[in-house]
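Hi V.,

You were right to ask for the full record rather than a summary. Here it is.
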Amino acid sequence: MSLAIKGGKPVRNERIPYGKQYIDDNDLKAVNDVLLSPYLTTGPKVKEFEKKLCELTGTKYAVVLSNGTAALHAACYAAGITAGDEVITTPITFAASANCVLYLGGIPVFADIDPFTWNIDPKEIEKKITNKTKAIIAVDFTGQVVQLDEIKKISNKYNLLLIEDAAHSIGSKYKGVPVGGIADLTTFSFHPVKTITCGEGGAILTNNEEYYRKMELFRSHGITRDPKLMTQAPFIGYNEQIELGYNYRMTDFQAALGVSQLGKLGLFSKRRNEIVNRYNEAFSKIPQITIQQEIPESETTRHLFIIKIKSECLSADRDEILKALNAENVGVQVHYIPVYYHPYYQSLGYKYGLCPLAEELYKEIVTIPLYYSLTNDDVESVIQAVIKVINYYQK
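Predicted structure:
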């Protein structure tokens, strides 16, 4: 059955998407200026964007790339992941968090989540460590920072590299320190539904110069123009490929958009937090709904807002709730299908039951709208729609 309930009117006549970029005149001007300049790619805006990211995060080095997946791939390459290496990550994430390990012949190992924060559980990480474990990829799910102190203790104890997949968490802080320079390598994503966007784009932050140099080469075919790295004296136009790399470069007009968007990050964070606070206030009063708990160490800029329905209290499952909210013109999503549920991972031998808490969460989560330009009326419409649907289906 679909809603509007039994032929009634939906809460909204026009659809509210679950996520949406915000582009203003400053963004348009920034991109247009580059389009009219001599450099559309490999120009000065890329370096400017990298400098701004370093300033934001207090990190020594930044490498921007064509997308967040490329950033994860490059981070794993810099970390030295090779065939047979095991890398521990969460199943509640986009597939790229694990795919980046497979690209290099490594083996993703999935550790279960904390049942309250929905982030990877440090205790579960330690249970999965073997003599083949090389690194941990900890994902800041929804923008809330993982328990970095505990995970860093584990990585130090077992001599593992820590990669923080911060695709969701630009603008977040851990114990007052901006995400970006705490882990060995930290990756960002600038997809349109993220807090800031370049259209597509990604970045890696690190304080390690060796990793930085490796990633610079990796994103640009492994080709260098640095005389210190060449085997023979250069001449005008000469370059050498010294490693096998990829074409993962970001264009200058993407970087220009990123610079402009970074200037609004404070506004974006403030508005997202206002919406999250209103949602928390409304949904914490509904016994059929659980909301994500936050660790006190995380000062979160939330990328996603997710409600967990209590199926035992309702006469409908999560999928029926999704259909009902869609019919109310509220855009919804599911973040995420556990990575090892995907047919490709099943073909590699991964089985259901690996992470019971993650699997339980997946069956009951619904992502509802959260973005900067969501108005107060929009927020109240979303809340009204959720309450309407929950009330209709309550036992």
